[in-house]
Amino acid sequence: MLRIYNSLTKKIESFHPSSPLRVTMYACGPTVYDYATIGNFRTYILSDVLLRTLRFCKLQVTYVMNITDVGHLTGDNFGDADSGEDKMEKSAKRLGKNAWEIAQFYTDAFIKDYELLRLEKPLIFAKATENIPEQIVLIKKLEEEGFTYQITDGIYFDTIKFPEYGELSTLDEVRDGARVEINKEKRSSRDFALWKFSNSKEKSLSGHEAVHKKRQMEWDSPWGKGFPGWHIECSAMSLKYLSLGIFDEGKFHAENSQTIDIHLGGIDLQSIHHQNEIAQAEGATGKKFVKYWVHGAFILVDGKKMSKSLGNNYIMEDVTKNGFDPLALRYLYLQTHYRQEMNFTWGSLEASHNALVHLRDEVANLSEDKNHGDKVYEQRFIDALQNDLDMPRALAIVWELIKSRRSDGEKLASIMKFDEVLGLDITRNRHIKEIYISVPDNINELIVKRTILRKEGKYQDADKIREELRKEGYIIEDKNGVTIPRKLK
Questions:
Q1: How many Cα atoms within 13 Å fall on the side-chain side of residue 335?
Q2: Claim to verify: residue 446 and residue 423 sit in the same structural domain
Q3: Is the pLDDT of residue 412 over 90?
Q4: Which of 77, 242, 456, 468 is the most buried (most CB within 10 A)?
Q5: Contacts for 210 with CB less than 8 Å, ≥ 6 apart
């Protein structure tokens, strides 16, 4: 049975879905004003591994991920998600495009990177801009239930009216004011915007009064022309796609709401964004919103926080242009438990790249003499998955099986099963078209050097030469003590 750490209860729990027939899962996706960073993709890889694990355990999963393309304000960078400029519109001004073009461009870029990492696509990438009516209906329901009030710049959620506020994060973590001046019109500093007015006067981040000009992204609503707050989109879209019939005929049907089994996101979303999602959804439905909250830890880069100012907020293009297989990043992240902060370096990525190449080469040399795997190793692999997604242990079991005395066929059959969760394309080299050839002298010298290094036990240096040979267009196979060079077509 799968056991997973639940951020809501602060402990590892046995996973029991609400329905034995279907698991519902929602993941917070990107804000598409810029490229997703490799830090963002650590969270999306976590979501993918959990999805694959559930399916590996024979569970049916309905999976939804949002695309934030409106309403995420720059004030969120300073601790106040309700202030500042919309990130989409700011990016549009910077690049000389309109906000809709920015949203589409970076959404396409995200999906391209998503596919490079072999992430399983959700039922839908739910866009905030395509679900504005549902967000308005949800706000109206909250208004009917007495959870809202209006001030100069918008409609706000009154957190005092929701006694359970803070259960996911604790009120101490939802800090007053954070790094920006508190909006003095708010009843509590923890209150948050549900709907922002386009033409309101409010304080800018610099503290000066600013009048909003006409926005590129704005909609009519019962409260005036404006745009949704950042938090409301996830409550509305998760309920819409995972509780069928809840928004039928333009009305909110609380009786149709169903508790979502799993909600995922980065640890940075836990204290405020996800707490606000709970308040909105449970305020409107009167029912538990999510059973299991799963959060992934941050990454550091060379021991420092990832940021534009430091120039270390790397994206997938940085990975590929430096000659690394995108799946080497996936391999790297699988080596650290998802709840443990990790440090990214280009050296660690290179080591993961070499390990992945080595693993594929080992699998490429396996013959298919049986069509069933080894039950003992397969059970150990499942046990690692079910132990709060212990992927470092799962990877170690793969290597133990490779080095074991099990038959080639057993190894191959089991590893192919394991890769249903790992998503590393481990059998890639078995499908490469190649021919035996005579090699040039410089290639032969590299092969001889690699052989010497292997005999001396310097496998890491030998793997570097293997990768150098691959860049030259050659793959080498070690079989029965003989090294056989082949040229890639």
A1: 18
A2: no
A3: yes
A4: 242
A5: 201, 202, 203, 204
Is 25:186 a contact under the CB 8 Å cutoff? Answer: no
| Structure confidence at residue 430 as a pLDDT band (50, 70, 90) | confident
Distance from C-alpha of 273 to C-alpha of 173, rounded to nearest angstrom: 12
**Do residues 419 and 436 share a domain?**
no
The reported pTM is 0.86
Total domains in the chain come to 3
CA 269, CA 437: separation in Å to the nearest integer? 55
Q: Which domain holds residue 200?
A: 3-296
pLDDT of residue 138 exceeding 70, the answer is yes
HEC sequence for 187-243:
CCCCCEEEEEECCCEEECCCCCEEECCCCCCCECCCCCCEEECCCHHHHHHHHHHHC
Q: What is the DSSP string of 428-466?
A: GGGG--EEE----HHHHHHHHHHHHHHHTT-HHHHHHHH
pLDDT at 180: 53
pLDDT for 296 equals 97
Query: Is residue 236 in a domain?
Result: yes
- Structure tokens of 213? 């000009």
Please state, in angstroms and rounded to a whole number, the distance separating the CA atoms of residues 106 and 37. Answer: 12
The percent of residues in the chain predicted with pLDDT above 90, rounded, is 71
